[in-house]
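ingest -> fold -> write
write: protein_1
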Amino acid sequence: MIKRDQTTVEKYKKALVAMAMPVLFFSSLAYADIGDAMVLCKHNKTVRTLRVETGSDSKCKAIYTKQGVDQTIGSSGDVNTCSEVIAGVRKTLEEAKWNCRDVKEARSSTVISVE
């Protein structure tokens, strides 16, 4: 009986390690120090986000998120141009009584249940 319990414990340990490794790996990728490149705007309980994403080719995209759906609202080879697009949309939202703030960092995490 003890041998079987030890085997079960070993299986659970292996399963836990197998699940923890991707979480640890991807959580470091999910952390992004994005400086002033992301803006969070709220009005009542409605939220909008604005961000600049830069690709490996140094081209950027200005992205507006509404109801969880990303929309590219501008793109350029110059990050300053994408930032100007974001600043313009932010100004428009603030003029419409939205409260916007810069987000200095973004983190994402995933919860995994073990049965």
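write: protein_2
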Amino acid sequence: MSALALSVVLSLVSAVAYAGGAIVQERVAVSSPDQAYAPLRRPAWWAALAMNGLGGLLHVVALAYGPLSLVQPLGALTIVFALPMAALFVGRKAGSTAWRGAIMATVGLAGLLALVGSSDSRSLDTAQRVAVALVTGGAVVALMVAGRAAHRHPAVRSVLLATGSGIAFGMSSVFTKTVAVDWTNGVSAADLPSLGVIGVFATAGVLLSQASYRGAGLAAPLATLTVVNPVVAAAVGITMFGETFRYGSTGTALALSCGVLAAGGLILLTTERLEQSAQEEARPAQAAEGAEAVTGAVAVAAVEPAADVPLVAEREPAADLEPVADLEPVAAVEALVAAEAAVRDAAVRERMFVPAQAAPGATEGPGPGPTEGPGPYGGDGAESEPGGDAMAAPAAPVSGAGDPGPFLGSPYGWAFLPVAPRDRHRTRVRS
């Protein structure tokens, strides 16, 4: 097997491993949405992590034996392979847009594979590595600054940051190929700076990709990242690693056309998958809202009048109305009840405050005027208190023999007021 064929096989297996790991991780995350660290306690999540590690290792080995302009674009087959694998193992159906994008990406990558030429594996010297690292770092920093300046335009900011992330990931693969080619002849400490650059670019790519998803959704940044990564790596492979295509300039033009076709298919795949995920997440909320809406409609329908009942009551003829009863007897009864209540109130007031008993020898007057003779407070002709104001003394209950009975009072000093007798006689009112 040639080195080119081996790199293609390794790239395909790497893409399958990446796709399988992504599907398993997604299922584990969906099965425990409310527990942050629950996936760490499940063997399936660790199996998915091992599959991702295997995919990364196979990708590195493929870069050591194959050209960047082919291996890196084949890594995008992860999205293509995830489509039938999800339908087969998870039961997730894809729409026509996704299948159309998968076909476009497959045809474009197949054309690129057919046009790529065989070339010897090459590495970059120290000067080239320094130059590439500085140029890449400057481009990534410039895109970060531009994205920060465009904070008022979330879409522009997202695309700028996603472009920087794609460049960082692509150049990380460039340095990975350099180290992999060097290690085919033996591991040396001279590659430690290159390993550090790989770590810096990979970390920057992860951070920028996460920042690009904030505020503008996932479709635009993920599609940008998916396209920029292989394009940058392929451009560096052609310009700095001496990679060529068959049939000269014609083959190069056809390869670029196949790359554009594959990029369009990847964009369709990415956007359709994100739209499907958004619809799946929104479906439970819509079902809940629909249930509430149906409940409300049922409640409203329960109180709506029937179709054959008029909304406005028809006025009946005056001849059909029942005669209104005469209200004069009712008014007479109300007046009589009010008079009885006034009499009872007067009786209560009379028992509460009555004039004191006159002294022996006093003449009885016709009215409740002052009595002659000394009063109970030592006055000389009228009942008066030392303060000068006349007041009624509390009446002592009279016994049956005419002598005043015992004073009924409470131990706290106020007089005991007997309950007024109730008249149990019912007044008959002739209706």
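write: annotation protein_2
The chain has eleven helices and no strands.
Residues 293-306, 362-420 have pLDDT under 50 and may be disordered.
pipeline exit 0
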